[in-house]
């Protein structure tokens, strides 16, 4: 296989969102709400259990009234906000405006950190002439995050689910990315952290490489295995598969 295009997921692959506690503290500070320390810790734990932090832990349970919107959350900005603020509202917070403040906080570049090897790997791909795309199930524009962290110049195209009304694993979103890059899916690799969602690229003939969705300090170099798929790279990782 000749790799001419590399597609990357956003959350859990190139970037990781901050912790639930850091996320909550930022929203509290912005709102001016004074909350005792022990309550901050408790609220953060309850919000994490509820799955209210996009890019964080999955919900322990989705309330019945949110089941439909949760399943389609990445198809539009409105559905995405409704799904995650709806989950957050399962946790009684001291001020009603905090639910929107939390959602707005997670969209800020400061809420995200790139994995340590992200810049290195994207830069190496560019130098080797491989086109790079970002394919994400998301309800907002991640481009400012990439710009703030210096990665946007290394990305050739973005295929964001909410902009196309279709979410992974639907092959149509991967097709959008491949077309934008001008590469055949059979010459592309999809790199992501979700076997079901990112594995949808295999239906088009893309190779799929999976990485673990871990905190940034626990995953220093997993993306480097992608370079092993190129002719002058290191041996390919065992995390690569085709459907």
From TrEMBL:
Keywords: Hydrolase
Protein name as catalogued: Hydrolase
Provenance organism: Streptomyces hygroscopicus
Domain of life: Bacteria
GO terms, molecular function: hydrolase activity
UniProt-listed InterPro entries: HAD-like_sf, HAD-SF_hydro_IA, HAD_sf
